[in-house]
């Protein structure tokens, strides 16, 4: 599977096809990021439990009959929830050999961390495919990064990015690429940062890593106002946001969700290159 995946990196965006489903029988070889109750397999405890607050996490959008792009499904709790609610879901997950955009921390053994991360993501992906099989799911998965979407995925009624932007070195490029393929609504959910929530409408962004804190997998924390202002620039006219608590290892953490609707296509969708 790894060889098959890495072969994609030599293809152009238009040539990339959906990942062939992995055959995973044994949940003990899986890591579940989400707590998931998987049909005919049981309950698996994960790092986060989105079950009680899933509707708020998804911005209370209508899912039935919608073609949904889910960026970064991890174990797929949201994926299969949305499919069960009647959406046609297409997911984009990071390639096996490029699992994240790592912060250049000078005092860490980044190579060792990178190898561990590759193995960790493989275990999360096995959990996704284990659940996919048990749900008898039709969800397609593409391999890639959210700022370079494979064109074969097509267009979407709704795009969801939950807990993704904080991991992206260039969040504006990701919002721009995702907006360009979305016709109906875009949903952005992030964990709220207490300092930024004092003035939630201000367009604030917190640079998370420092040499002292040694954070290597998170670049940013955002205010709701930052996401709203960025989406306005990308042509989204009707913007709403809400806050909600989500559970991680028994503790409630405040999150916010911004929903953009009613988008006017932009010249920026076509290309960032200039002809004049
Ligand atoms: C914190 S998990 C969130 C999982 C799920 N979306 C949720 O809201 O619970 C972040 C997910 O985004 C993926 N991810 C991170 N950076 C990405 C990128 N540049 N392109 C696509 N997926 C990315 C990770 O691999 C992982 O699956």
UniProtKB/TrEMBL annotation:
Source organism, top-level taxon: Bacteria
Molecular function GO terms recorded: methyltransferase activity
Stretches that traverse the bilayer: none
Keyword Transferase belongs to the record: yes
Gene3D superfamilies linked to this entry: Vaccinia Virus protein VP39 (3.40.50.150)
InterPro entries named in the record: SAM-dependent_MTases_sf (IPR029063)
Keywords recorded for this protein, A-Z: Methyltransferase, Transferase
Entry's Gene Ontology BP terms: methylation
Protein name: O-methyltransferase
Organism whose genome encodes this protein: Allochromatium warmingii (Chromatium warmingii)
């Amino acid at each position: 599977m790894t060889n098959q995946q890495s072969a994609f990196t030599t293809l152009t965006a238009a040539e990339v096809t959906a990942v062939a489903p992995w055959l995973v029988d044994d949940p003990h070889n899986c890591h579940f990021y989400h707590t998931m109750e998987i049909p005919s397999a049981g309950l698996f405890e994960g790092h986060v439990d989105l079950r009680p607050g899933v509707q708020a996490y998804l911005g209370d959008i209508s899912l039935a009959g919608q073609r949904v792009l889910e960026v970064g499904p991890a174990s797929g709790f949201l994926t299969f929830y949305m499919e069960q609610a009647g959406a046609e879901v297409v997911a984009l997950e990071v390639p096996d050999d490029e699992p994240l955009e790592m912060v250049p921390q000078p005092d860490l053994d980044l190579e060792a961390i990178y190898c561990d991360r590759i193995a960790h993501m493989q275990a999360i992906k096995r959990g996704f495919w284990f659940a996919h099989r048990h749900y008898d799911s039709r969800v397609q998965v593409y391999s890639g990064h959210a700022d370079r979407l494979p064109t074969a995925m097509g267009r979407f009624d709704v795009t969801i990015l939950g807990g993704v932007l904080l991991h992206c070195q260039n969040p504006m490029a990701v919002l721009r690429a995702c907006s360009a393929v979305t016709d109906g609504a875009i949903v952005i959910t992030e964990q709220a940062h207490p300092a930024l929530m004092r003035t939630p409408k201000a367009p604030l962004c917190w640079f998370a890593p420092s040499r002292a804190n040694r954070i290597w997998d998170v670049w940013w924390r955002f205010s709701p106002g930052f996401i709203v202002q960025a989406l306005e620039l990308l042509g989204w006219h009707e913007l709403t946001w809400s806050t909600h608590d989500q559970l991680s290892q028994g503790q409630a953490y405040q999150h916010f969700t911004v929903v953009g609707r009613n988008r006017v296509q932009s010249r920026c969708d076509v290309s960032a290159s200039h002809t004049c």
